[in-house]
Amino acid sequence: MSSRPLVSTENLSVRFARQGASDLVASRNVNLHIDAKETLGLVGESGSGKTTIGRALVRLIVPSGGTVRFDGQDVSHIRGGALTRYHRHAQMIFQDPFASLNPFHSVGHHLRRPLTRLRHLQGRKRQEALDELLTLVGLTPSSVFQEKYPHELSGGQRQRVSIARALAGGPSFIVADEPVSMLDVSLRAEILTLLESLQESRDLSYLYITHDLASARYLSHRIAVMYGGSLVEIATADELVQNPAHPYTKLLLSATPGSTHTGSLPEKMQGAPDLSADRIGCPFAPRCPSSMSKCTQMMPELLDVTTNHQSACFLNE
């Protein structure tokens, strides 16, 4: 892998204004990197900030603070033609393929648009590229599928169209936002295998967003854990699953079938994390059975637990 990350963030923050209340901070000072041909899994429960991070990395939303870099270049606030050119390199696969596909347009329309806008293809060359994309994701014969509309496809077929659309610009980085969570269990393995084979054949890097640690371990080289908009642990996939260091990661594993850490884990309370801008301390402190007074007063830094394993918890100091 290159010594320089393909994608990286420095103190990335995203906040949303709320009327009559303090801003909601969905991502707070997040630092991560993704190397060429690497998959970084990003896990956490709903509301942890995973999708916000993914959208910021492909610049579907503008960061409120910090920096997003692609191949060393700052893309945090690019606009216009520069943003369009960036989208040739960075794309997103959305969670719900039915919601992300326009029901009034055919499969062919969904793919011709990025082929025209991002790669400037027309006529026969565009049609050849369209046929290649549909064949690549297993929708054959392409002449049949390009005429179909989203409602005429199964959930798995719609997600394959979404994957083809993400590939249309020829990207090197793709954010896959829970790409199998809306599919039947029998189809999930097929889509994960497809993503894995595409990474090999197209030299792709992924940010794989999921709440499922089992699939994250299967597809990812490293896994980052988020809670309350903050990054709380990051390690190689096997190391994180086998030797979790943060109490929240242990809680996630306790609910993961097949994990050696399954079983009850006491919590002081249940509820959504505090995402307000004036929050202080560790976001997991209100739920953590091991929290100390300083956990509510300051956010612990990500510190080395072992080689290639970091955790933001005072218990690991």
CATH architecture of the domain at 7-220: 3-Layer(aba) Sandwich
Q: Numbering strands along the chain, what is their spatial order in the largest sheet?
A: 6-7-8-3-9-10-12-11
CATH-assigned homologous superfamily of the domain at 7-220: P-loop containing nucleotide triphosphate hydrolases
Pattern of helices and strands: EEEHEEHEHHHHEHEHEEHHEE
Radius of gyration: 20 Å
Q: What's the tally of helices?
A: 10
- CATH class of the domain at 7-220, named Alpha Beta
Task: Bin the strand percentage.
Answer: 15-25%
Return the structural class: alpha/beta
The N- to C-terminal Cα distance equals 31 Å
Low-confidence region ranges: none
CATH topology term of the domain at 7-220: Rossmann fold
Q: How many distinct beta strands?
A: 12
Overview of the molecule:
This protein is an alpha/beta fold and 317 residues long. The protein has a domain at 7-220: P-loop containing nucleotide triphosphate hydrolases (Rossmann fold), CATH 3.40.50. It has helices spanning 50-57, 80-89, 107-117, 123-136, 142-145, 155-167, 185-202, 213-219, 237-242, 247-254, and strands at 7-18, 21-34, 39-43, 65-70, 73-74, 90-93, 173-177, 205-210, 222-227, 230-236, 303-306, 309-311. The strands form two sheets. The protein has an eight-stranded mixed sheet, sandwiched between helices. It has a four-stranded antiparallel sheet with strand order 2-1-4-5. The two termini are 31 Å apart.
